[in-house]
Amino acid sequence: MPTVAPLDLEGHIVGVAFLKDIPFFAGAAGAIHRLDHGHRTTEAHDGLLSLAYDEASETLLTGGEDGKVMRLLADGTASLVAETPRKWISEVAAGPQGAVAYAFGKTTYVRLADGTTKEFAEERTVEGIAFAPKGLRIAVARYNGVSLHWVAMAGKAVDLEWKGAHTSVTFSPDGRFVVTSMQENALHGWKLDTKPGADARHMRMTGYPAKVKSLSWSAKGKWLASSGAPAAIVWPFQGKDGPMGKAPLELGTRGNTMVTAVACHPAEDIVAIGYEDGMVIAARFADSKEVLLRRPGKGAITAMAWNKNGRQLAFGSAAGDSGVVDIAG
């Protein structure tokens, strides 16, 4: 039976992560909490807006209202990566070869490991950034679509156009697809064709009763789990055309209780599902079997993360009630 080690924090939890098996909880006020032989805190920002886990270095990148981009180590040490005074760092992303992307307003910056910084301007405000899994390439979500930039080249961006406001962006783990969440209750995707001159094919994923605020790829990238409905909506991406013409799985349906966060297991085809009432379950793709991980709490689940071996799940909520579930009990 899973057991929960609770951690009661103040305020909205923006993100959670495990660094070297130590759970970290990032609060909107700017404090980063960790459970490392007791509850310890690093004051990283004066107001925290964005967070990204850097898998290669097992560190955490954060962006704040104070114009700072910080990197946190597993021992809680924080160092300054970049600073833009009086600008809100609304997006951060971790890339290959030590690259870090961050954005404010209409501009994305990519800071390379040697300290060089590249600048990419958009016509509209940047709403999301993602690095491609291979090659130093970024996708930037904005109004009316996504811009794809090669970081080393100053050439023209590849524009993936679709009318409407795109609020986040992700690459599939194999790099074949780009998917955005939208201001309307939908996802939009593009199949990136490798043939020269070929157009990216559109994928429209609709039918959500609420905005999609959480996306998570399965371990092998064959599925994309999403929030925004009274179940986790899990789209199939194993075919050459992704989810086009296919129905998604609906896992963990609970009446009218909305799913607010999803996190796919690092090895198995299992997804952790967090709800607006604070409840967390795990559901298996193959047979929809469910296991209760945490009973309802004070606030909606806002963030979840598995540790590397998939035996522990950290979660945080809009009300600050957080914790770590030990799956083995």
From TrEMBL:
SUPFAM superfamilies in UniProt: Quinoprotein alcohol dehydrogenase-like
Transmembrane segment boundaries: none
SMART domains: WD40
Residue span(s) of domain Anaphase-promoting complex subunit 4-like WD40: 266-327
Superkingdom of the source species: Bacteria
Coiled coil (UniProt feature): none
Descriptive protein name: High-affnity carbon uptake protein Hat/HatR
